């Protein structure tokens, strides 16, 4: 086994997918499984599909291309607005994409016509989080322009909350989509197929029965991959956690002062660091650094171990109170958050099992 490494429990991910799919199905909502958090790691994606997810989404075209190379042929959507530089790959490898810029959709139309393909578009609506999306008052007019474009299928409208502004989903901001869909249908005489109401953070609203009737899709990643909802700081009912474990090895173990010796400036990242003098402490250095993962994205499974800090390549732990015997070569295990999972699966220095 190479270290450092993450160990992905695909059986737990499969069971989580089944739980989430069934939870949403009860209210007529389909699940688009979001793979970006684990960089579309093939075994995890396959576990999602085995758990009942029938449609996938990712924010990186490279991940979508990798899924296609791995033989994954279910519908896949690019969930970040396509760059103009990636229009051709978006049409070639993605069945559809989430969009908010008419010029981008026009370019998708041109390329789809050249490639003799139909590209599906979900128009994103900004309901207050102020990330991507058309303002509600402009949606009906822009939809009319999209409907005139060749080789583009207007699939529906969607929204996102909680990722930039921290706005939580509510009946009111999901109802905006439902009302807009009704306006579009009345004006253009079409059926709006998809109302994509949000992400993992919406499951709390769904559980309470407070999501607006008519929302028929949620884009779910974290709840399936980790069984958690970091925005509400709670596990998803019925799901399993500890799906991904980080392992790394102790490369130094020494008793040292807890307060640095000498004049203190900034650390390697330009930050001013503050230290508490606790006297001499037993400190372990493990082979992991901030180049691999931010410190707030992981937590030692052994709760008596404390993360003191890290440089690019070395993480310093206080193991003075550790109940297990620590020595050079010992393996230290960590649970990971969504951010930690994203960092670790992105790092080329972390093996995946």
Can you lay out the helices and strands and say which pair or pack?
Blueprint (H helix, E strand, L loop, with lengths): L4 E4 L1 H16 L4 E5 L7 H9 L4 E4 L2 H9 L6 E3 L8 H7 L2 E4 L2 H13 L4 E7 L13 H9 L4 E8 L11 H18 L5 E3 L5 H6 L9 E4 L1 H4 L2 E2 L4 E2 L8 E14 L22 E8 L10 E3 L5 E5 L3 E5 L12 E6 L1 H9 L4 E2 L1
Parallel strand pairs: 1-18, 2-3, 2-9, 3-4, 4-5, 5-6, 6-7, 7-8
Antiparallel strand pairs: 1-12, 10-11, 12-13, 12-17, 13-16, 14-17, 15-16
Helix pairs in contact: 1-2, 4-5, 6-7
Describe what you observe in this structure:
- This protein has 353 residues and is an alpha/beta fold.
- The protein has 2 domains: 227 residues, Alanine racemase (TIM Barrel, Alpha-Beta Barrel), CATH 3.20.20.10; 109 residues, no CATH class.
- 28% of the residues lie in helices and 25% in strands.
- The chain has 10 helices and 18 strands.
- It is elongated and about 75 Å long.
Broad structural category: alpha/beta
Q: Would you tell me which CATH topology of the largest domain applies?
A: TIM Barrel
Reading off the top of the CATH hierarchy, the class of the largest domain is best stated as: Alpha Beta
* Number of distinct helices: 10
- Helices and strands, in order, run as EHEHEHEHEHEHEHEHEHEEEEEEEEHE
How many domains? The number is 2
Reported for the largest beta sheet, the result is: 8 strands, mixed
Key phrases:
alpha/beta; eight-stranded mixed β-sheet; 2 domains; 10 helices; 18 strands; eight-stranded parallel β-sheet; 353 residues; TIM Barrel
